[in-house]
Amino acid sequence: MPVINGWRSSEELMSYLGAPYRFIGPDVDYRWFENYLNNRSNTIRCCVCEDGNAKPLCLVTLAGIDWVSRNCELHIMVGNDENRGKGIGSFAVKKMIEHAFLDMNLRRIELTVLEDNARARHLYEKFGFQYEGIKRKAKYKHGRYVDMRLMALLKSDWLAGRGSNNTIS
Ligand SMILES: CC(C)(COP(=O)(O)OP(=O)(O)OC[C@H]1O[C@@H](n2cnc3c(N)ncnc32)[C@H](O)[C@@H]1OP(=O)(O)O)[C@@H](O)C(=O)NCCC(=O)NCCS
């Protein structure tokens, strides 16, 4: 929790996300985590940790699971800049797609990403997420309103594409 609390209070990290930057004290995050533990039927949170210890490098989440329509939202953060660009995000997204489709029997994973977050967009496209539209001026970031891109991956498309790029090991 202290590591994740540090990320969630980081202005640098939050600049990549739709959520606004604000200081989040440790007490708030312990309650946030407690709330997650009490609502695990519609949210799944996983961490990628450093080899040999439990130090988290990346938090990846399937949120808002709708068991009728079998949809969910994907959220991801590799907490520290020095750990980005090393394949951790690709590993986490691949594992969460497999978990969503092959273990949880979900059929659609959607997400929103800031239009100017080129690295995240590339990551999602690499795994077959498709562009579905723009939420215009949806977020207020760095003193201006910015667009959010809606993307989604269907299980049927993912299964059809297995064996190509989206099954990288
Ligand atoms: C986005 C994020 C999850 C990606 O994880 P990562 O571990 O850094 O990414 P990876 O190393 O697995 O892969 C990055 C890919 O993006 C590419 N990339 C890196 N910088 C890029 C850029 N500026 N523009 C386009 N592609 C870029 C890399 O070449 C790589 O592609 P490849 O595998 O085809 O070679 C991570 O950088 C992160 O947490 N960023 C901050 C928070 C964030 O943006 N979260 C997503 C919110 S929607």
Largest sheet: 6 strands, mixed
**Mean pLDDT score:** 94
Which overall shape is indicated by the principal axes computed on the Cα atoms?
globular
Order of helices and strands: HHHEEEHEHEEH
Strand-residue fraction? 25-35%
Work out the helix count. 6
The beta-strand count equals 6
Q: State the end-to-end distance.
A: 29 Å
Helical content (DSSP H or I, runs of 4+): 25-40%
Hetero ligands:
coenzyme A
Low-confidence stretches: none
Derived from helix and strand composition plus strand pairing, the structural class reads: alpha+beta
For the largest sheet, list the strands in their spatial order: 1-2-3-4-6-5
Query: What is the rounded Rg?
Result: 16 Å
What does this structure look like?
By secondary structure, the protein is α+β, with helices and mostly antiparallel strands. Helices cover 33% and strands 33% of the residues. It has helices spanning 2-8, 11-14, 26-38, 88-103, 118-126, 155-161; strands at 44-49, 56-66, 71-78, 108-114, 130-141, 144-154. A hairpin with a 6-residue loop joins strand 1 and strand 2 (56-66). It starts with a helix and ends in an 8-residue tail after the last helix. The model has no long low-confidence stretch (mean pLDDT 94). The protein binds coenzyme A. Residues 13, 16-17, 76-78, 84-90, 113, 117-120, 122-123, 126 line the site of coenzyme A.
